[in-house]
Amino acid sequence: MGSTARAVAILCSLFLWTGSPAMAAETLDDRIVAMMPHADIVKPDGPGPFPVVVQLHGCGGKKAFQGTWAQQARAAGWAAIVLDSYAHRGISRLGAYATVCTGARLWGRERAGDLYAALEWARRQPWVDAERLVAAGWSHGGWAVLDALALAPGAEMTGAAKLQGLPAEPLAGVRGAFLVYPYCGFGCVARRRGLRIEARPLALVGSRDVVAGSAGLRATLEAMPAPTPVRVAWLEGATHAFDEPDASDMRVRYDAERTAEAHALYRRYLAEIR
């Protein structure tokens, strides 16, 4: 991140913590109403109740390959909620690359509110096993999951996520966190503070990831304070977004073999959550 981008990021950080007095407060129910119509729901056959995993996409937005991951969850007996964090905010694909991917807007701590809202929505559904919930995030989505698990309930969560009316424990029922090449650098609350709840986190890190990091990211995650240490699955030869067949970034390369390995890890991880 260059000096100009870092300066913008610092200003954004201050804004995210303090909020804007000119903005009307958004409630948890407001977020649910605005966001959930844009989410994709994938469920196993039958009436349930099913354990549920909430999937948060990377900074480029919700893409088709997220549906492939959701089908892996379904194969493990889980329902998947694939969020779209941009549709209700009016952020286009180009706008996302220009602002979210550069750190100019929507840091992980603010986007944590999307996870809180999706979890609350899930707990209200009769087909959901509200005692078995998992948060999964890719890249920027991994940042959002990490920060969601790091923030303290009450005033801190409300201010950081810019969301009023949160329950006493927005993470009630969360039993796991699955992270795929998560961003964990400058601005990540969890990087310095660690995780607040027991979530048995598993992170997938590629040895050739020059976007989120490789060996350095692995060391940061493994050193992160948490009730249960973050486990890292090291994917030899994998770049950032190795699981995205249509990736256009020259820094990434789709790897079918590593993707199959990652999908198997996802199914196994979900099957282990009790």
Would you write up a description of this structure?
- With 274 residues, this protein is of the alpha/beta class.
- It has one domain (3-272): Rossmann fold, CATH 3.40.50.
- It is 39% helix and 15% strand.
- It has a seven-stranded mixed beta sheet with strand order 1-3-2-4-5-6-7, sandwiched between helices.
- β2 (50-56), α3 and β3 form a beta-alpha-beta unit.
Question: Tell me, what is the CATH class?
Answer: Alpha Beta
| Bulk shape | globular
| Order of H and E elements | HHEEHEHHEHHEHEHEH
Supply the number of helical segments: 10
Poorly predicted runs of 5 or more residues: 1-23
How many domain units?
A: 1
Span of the ends, CA to CA: 40 Å
Biggest β-sheet: count, sense, barrel? Answer: 7 strands, mixed
Main β-sheet, spatial strand arrangement: 1-3-2-4-5-6-7
Oligomer: single chain
CATH architecture: 3-Layer(aba) Sandwich
Radius of gyration: 17 Å
Helix content: 25-40%
CATH superfamily descriptor: Alpha/Beta hydrolase fold, catalytic domain
Beta-strand proportion: 15-25%
> How many runs of DSSP E, i.e. beta strands?
7
CATH topology: Rossmann fold
The overall pLDDT, averaged over residues, is 92
